[in-house]
Specification:
Elements (H helix, E strand, L loop, with lengths): L18 E5 L6 E5 L4 E3 L6 E3 L14 H5 L4
Antiparallel strand pairs: 1-2, 3-4
């Protein structure tokens, strides 16, 4: 089977705004997210923070979603 190359996940097609900073909702420390990261651990308070811009809408219709994201997603 051929490798799956999703243009949405391929970093060659990313824009500068696909990597962004958010304030931790628990301690206000800055957290850097990449658009495909669902969660990060805050370096300030060590709590798990969900990516506020996470959008995997393509997984609802893409026939290759299980290969790209895994069956559990």
């Amino acid at each position: 089977m051929a490798d799956v190359h999703c243009p949405g996940q391929d970093q060659r097609y990313w824009r500068p705004e696909d990597i962004f900073l958010v304030a931790c909702p628990h301690c206000a420390a800055e957290i850097e997210f990449w658009k495909d990261e669902p969660v990060r651990i805050c370096s300030g308070c060590k709590k798990e923070v969900r990516n506020p811009r996470m959008d995997l809408g393509c997984a609802k219709w893409c026939r290759e979603a299980d290969k790209c994201l895994g069956k559990e997603k």
